[in-house]
Amino acid sequence: MRYAFLFSCMFLLVVSVFAQDNRTSSPQSSTAGATEIVLRCRPSLPVSDHALVVIDGKISSSDMKDVDVNAIASIAILKGDTAIALYGSRGVNGVICIKMKVAAQIFQIRDGEDGSGLNDATLTFVDDKKDSIRLLADQTGSAQTDRLKPGTEYSVYITVVGHKEFTAKYKALRGATTTYRLARDVKENPEVIVVGYGTIICRYWRRDTIAMASNADLLFASTLTVPSTVKVFPNPTRRGGKITVELNAADNSPRQIRIFNLNGAMLSSQVYVPVKGLNQINVPVASHWAGGMYTVQVADQRGQILQHKLLVN
User: Fold this and answer.
1) For 199-217, what is each residue's pLDDT tens digit?
2) pTM above 0.85, yes or no
3) Is the Cβ–Cβ distance between 52 and 59 less than 8 Å?
């Protein structure tokens, strides 16, 4: 726009000189009646009485009193021809170039059901140029960075064990806090029932209805087999706590109590020697385990396995 203004001024000046040359070369011309041409040049845009304020490369409509001085990283002053060359007529009173500090942007990764923080969640930000920035959430499910450019739109990809992958669009804002809630990825496998057997004595009595006898005769004694069961509670449970494995044992042979994740990896194992009958065994749940479904197995020396599903929050 500044160059268009200079071009128009030069054009009018050339027209004026050409008109004067024609008058002097003509025999009928007279300087007494010469026409005076006055060039009045003014800016095409209104000029403020104050210096122009430019914040992070963008012209600001506010003055310095509206700028938070604690958030300023650096200030540069442009004057004279340098200011006019860069900003045209708007820079005649000088230019104040301000670069602001980049405030950290905070992200909270939460479970979609109970709102607890998801530790070790991975966040990947990809801009339109396919440049990526990757963050790892801490034990509380929080991650922060100052590497995201304010005003830039990113594609966000969040992954964590036991939850579905999350995708969203995020426009970076200086000092903003954003919360994402992830849905649990619960996989239901076909139920498999593995039973063990104990032995009980069952007595059956028959009353003689013809003689109306008051006594009864023992007819038979036999052995029946009933399945043993394993109960796990509380279910679901929280990380960092304990679960109780309730086992009805037919003998006192050692049992191995193991916990597996959905990938089949064994996370804990302990040997317990029960008493005959009902047993309650406390098993710790590690705090670093991810939320999701796990399998609790109780195995004896004969290879019989009892198992139960466990949901960890």
Assistant:
1) 445 444 444 333 343 343 4
2) no
3) yes
